[in-house]
Design brief:
9 strands, binds zinc ion, alpha/beta
Length: 216
């Protein structure tokens, strides 16, 4: 339903996935803050190597600079959502600003030829206006239920452990394919962790799929 919120705040830490019955099924890997040719393209190549389809929440302010990268994401079979135009928390902005930002981002994606069904607000911060503009524009808000917080460490193994500790059927994983809103090098930690996450998922018979495959 347009305007509804999918995947609420991260669940309680559930420990190693092997200890739980939620170890068969499907989950979605999502990437925020791109597109950026320096980082998004290597991430796309790595996903191809791994045979994985993911979902990219693009910023309008980056998409306007790199529309060909957005088209490339689409052409390689990934899903695309929108992450706002500028990367600002909605609770610190006026309702007018939030409406303008979200609608501008959606319009930018459409001008590139991409129809977006999902919106992820920056930092996962949701105001009343966030909900209203998502509903008005026909988008569902999608948050996440597992993340590696890769901006806090250079250790890809740590990122893997944070993600796989919450992995299970229906889980939505948040990673980053660009450093737009995080310290330089953040994307590379996610890039390094990606094959390890996929291996851990495979060990537990969890298949990574796009959001449309997971949610439809
Ligand atoms: Zn972000």
């Amino acid at each position: 339903m347009a305007g509804s919120v999918v995947a609420d705040e991260p669940a309680e830490d559930t420990g190693d996935v092997a200890q739980h019955s939620r170890s068969t099924g499907r989950f979605a890997i999502t990437f925020d803050d791109g597109p950026d040719p320096e980082s998004t393209l290597p991430v796309l190549d790595r996903l191809d190597d791994l045979g994985v389809a993911a979902t990219f929440f693009c910023l309008g302010s980056m998409a306007v600079k790199y529309p060909d990268i957005v088209r490339e994401i689409d052409a390689r079979g990934h899903d695309i959502g929108v992450h706002g135009y500028d990367h600002m928390p909605h609770l610190l902005r006026s309702p007018r600003w939030v409406c303008h930002d979200v609608l501008r981002a959606k319009a930018e994606m459409e001008s590139i030829g991409i129809t977006v069904r999902w919106f992820r607000p920056p930092y996962g911060v949701i105001s009343g206006t966030t909900l209203a503009v998502a509903k008005y524009s026909g988008m569902d808000i999608v948050l996440w239920s597992a993340w590696g917080r890769e901006w806090t460490t250079a250790d890809a193994g740590e990122v893997r452990d944070r993600i796989t500790g919450r992995l299970g059927n229906g889980v939505i994983v948040l990673m980053h394919d660009a450093d737009t809103a995080s310290p330089a090098g953040t994307w590379r930690v996610a890039y390094d962790a990606l094959p390890m996450v996929i291996q851990a998922a495979s060990d537990h018979k969890l298949q990574p799929v796009t959001l449309s495959a997971l949610l439809d």
